[in-house]
Amino acid sequence: MKKSTTGLLIGSALVVGLSGCASSASQSSGQASASSDRSWYQHPAVCGLAGGLIGGSIGYATSGSSDEESGSATGAVAGAAIGGLLCADRTPEPVAPQCPSYGEVPAGVAVDAEGCPLDSDGDGVPDYRDQCPGTPAGVEVNANGCPLDSDNDGVPDYRDQCPNTPAGVEVNALGCPESVVLQDVNFEFDSAQLTPNAQNVLNGVAERLVNNPDVRVSIEGHTDSRGSDQYNKDLSQRRAESVAAYLAQRGVEANRMRAVGYGEERPIATNDTDEGRFQNRRVELDEWK
Q: Which positions make up the signal peptide (predicted)?
């Protein structure tokens, strides 16, 4: 048999075998997660060796008698390169999650430029899971995106003027069972001038009222029994108005508030002791229906 015929037959047989290996390698690379799971004959090194034999055989068969060695060498190098490429591992690299902090994002969910689900109110709970969208900035929420309600009275903490109401007690829109005494809201002696500490207390009251915009409030001033009835009534009125004016400065709409002075008419303790009179000098906050 002639040299060319023998070389071509050997080359053809090896080409068929290499094609089968490459085909199997391509199929398995789409199924396997790593190149170590592939069969030995699908390894690029094995395919490269087979390619080298093929290329060398073809180079030998197609070369003249004077350049058999160089033809075989050139064919072997080219065949090895082609064989290695045919059996190269084409397993796709794993795709990193779009937004690792949220885990897998369901299909169809609106996302931002980084691939993270939209969180319109910025409370840390994405819109597609948020049962209370539109929560004001900075308000602490639960896993459902709803503001915390520590005493479970139906009024969330950021609106609740009485955050520790006992379980089962019915409350008004302020979160209080009844009118609430504004503790430490005091005034300079014999005047309606708020003390600095009273202003600090009212800052928190105002913040909760601003966050509870559908509620109107009654601000009620009270005094002890010292002095005339009329004087005490006037003083309590001015003090109630002073509180309302300060709350308005802090963002509470004036038309949501009314100021009422009751003077000494509604004591909650005896006026015969310093402690009792101190308790009677107070400002209360109630829902205004």
A: 1-24
Other CB atoms closer than 10 Å to residue 118's CB: what's the count? 13
Q: Answer for the pair 173, 155: CB distance below 8 angstroms, yes or no.
A: yes
The DSSP bridge partners found for residue 147 are 141
pLDDT tens digit string along 178-187? 999 999 999 9
Residues 224 and 264 sit within 8 Å (Cβ to Cβ)? yes
**pTM to 2 decimal places:** 0.63
At residue 212, φ and ψ (nearest 5 deg) are -125, 60
| Contact indicator for 148, 136 with CB cutoff of 8 Å | no
102 pLDDT tier (thresholds 50, 70, 90):
low
pLDDT in tens, 104-142: 778 888 888 778 889 999 998 999 999 999 999 999 999
**Residue-wise DSSP of 169-216:** ----TTS-SS-EE-TT--BSTTS-PBPHHHHHHHHHHHHHHHT-TT--
Tokens representing 235 are 């003083």
Asked if 261 and 234 count as a contact pair (C-beta separation under 8 A), the reply is yes
What are the structural domain ranges in the chain?
3-86, 113-148, 180-287
Provide the CATH number for the domain formed by 180-287 in this structure: 3.30.1330.60
Q: Are strands 217-222 and 257-261 parallel, antiparallel or unpaired?
A: parallel
| DSSP code of residue 118 | P
Residues 6+ apart with CB under 8 A from 168: none
Q: Which two tokens stand for residue 45?
A: 């090194």
* Cβ–Cβ < 8 Å for 286, 243: no
Cβ 145 vs Cβ 131: under 8 Å: yes
